[in-house]
Design a protein that fits this description.
The chain is mainly beta. The chain contains 1 helix and 11 strands; from the N terminus they run αβββββββββββ. A hairpin with a 2-residue loop joins β8 and β9. It is globular, with a radius of gyration of 17 Å.
């Protein structure tokens, strides 16, 4: 009986934590329109010099979110991912374009060029008092 109660409490706690965070999905689209969906922590394989669009979709799991997409931090190997910064291995070619296709759902597109071969980490950080979000995806740029 005690084991059931502990299991129930763990599931209840896990469910309540998830309801206060945002859920993200990531898709990398190449210039030919081929899409590669990657989950948090996974790696997308890219070709050096290739042009890509990273599509991010996030769903707020709570109401009345006060953090806009523009307030989210995008850190490429620890530095802010900024437009036309040619010192970064993935060059963002224009600012992200955000839409809200449904209530509490946001979709953004980040066009970029895979400039330098290697493995790079993009960290997405949303800070709020309802759990926010922190997640990483990786890009392996091959010659």
């Amino acid at each position: 009986m005690e084991k059931r109660i502990v299991t129930f409490l763990v599931l209840l706690l896990a469910g309540s934590i998830a309801t206060f965070a945002c859920n993200y999905t990531y898709t990398v689209i190449d210039a030919a329109g081929n899409a590669q969906r990657i989950s948090e922590g996974e790696t997308a394989i890219l070709q050096q010099g290739g042009e890509y669009t990273l599509q991010m979709v996030y769903v707020e799991n709570h109401r009345n979110c006060t953090v806009s997409p523009d307030q989210t931090l995008y850190l490429l190997d620890g530095s802010r991912w900024r437009v036309a910064r040619d010192t970064q291995p993935l060059i963002l070619t224009s600012p992200p374009d955000w839409e809200e296709p449904r209530s509490r759902t946001h979709s953004g597109e980040f066009p970029f060029v895979a400039n330098v071969s290697g493995t790079w980490t993009l960290e997405v950080v949303r800070v709020c008092d309802r759990g926010g979000y922190t997640g990483e995806i990786h890009f392996e740029v091959q010659l």
